[in-house]
Amino acid sequence: MRPVSKKRAATLAERERVREHVLERDGGCVFWLTAHGERGRTEWIEGDLVGAPTACDWGALAVHEVIQRSVRPGSELEPDLCVTLCQRHHAWCHEHIAEATRLGLLAASWDFDKFKEGRRL
Ligand SMILES: [Zn+2]
């Protein structure tokens, strides 16, 4: 018996390739670049960033799915749907869903086309 199916192993290998690509492409946490509007549209409003970590945790980077894989299965394999965040800002995004959505770091499945047009939220 195989502990991991061939299909699952292939998916894990592909995810690792996507992770490496996204980490290299972004060159670090994109939270503040996003907040400053340097990555396209952001619609955050006054107050959204109150309490957001001011400094990144550069020692701990995560590849975050802007459209969560629970919402769009396979999104973890689509580089356009992934960004690099440090663990600190990654945790903030998942604890501040509405704010992260306005910032463009979380999106709904119907926002998919916006990414495929080459525009990152
Ligand atoms: Zn950060």
Structural summary, described in words:
The chain has 121 residues and is mainly alpha-helical. The chain has a domain at 26-43 and 57-121. It is built from five helices and two strands; from the N terminus they run H-H-E-E-H-H-H. 26% of the residues are buried. The structure holds zinc ion. The site of zinc ion (ZN) has 7 residues, from strand 2 and helix 3.
SSE map:
Layout: H1 6-26, H2 31-35, E1 61-65, E2 82-86, H3 87-95, H4 97-103, H5 112-116
Helix pairs in contact: 3-4
Zinc ion is lined by residues 29, 31, 56, 85-86, 88-89.
Care to give the gist of this entry?
The chain has 121 residues and is mainly α.
Describe the structure using short key phrases.
single chain, two-stranded antiparallel ribbon, mainly alpha, 121 residues, binds zinc ion, 5 helices
Q: Provide the helix percentage.
A: 25-40%
Main sheet properties: 2 strands, antiparallel
Mean pLDDT: 90
Unreliable stretches (pLDDT < 50, length at least 5) are: none
Structural class: mainly alpha
* Distance separating the two termini: 44 Å
- Give the ligands present: zinc ion
Order of helices and strands: HHEEHHH
What fraction of the residues are assigned to beta strands by DSSP? 5-15%
Task: Give me the number of helical elements.
Answer: 5
Report the principal-axis shape: globular
DSSP, total strands = 2
Strand order of the largest sheet: 1-2
Gyration radius over CA: 15 Å
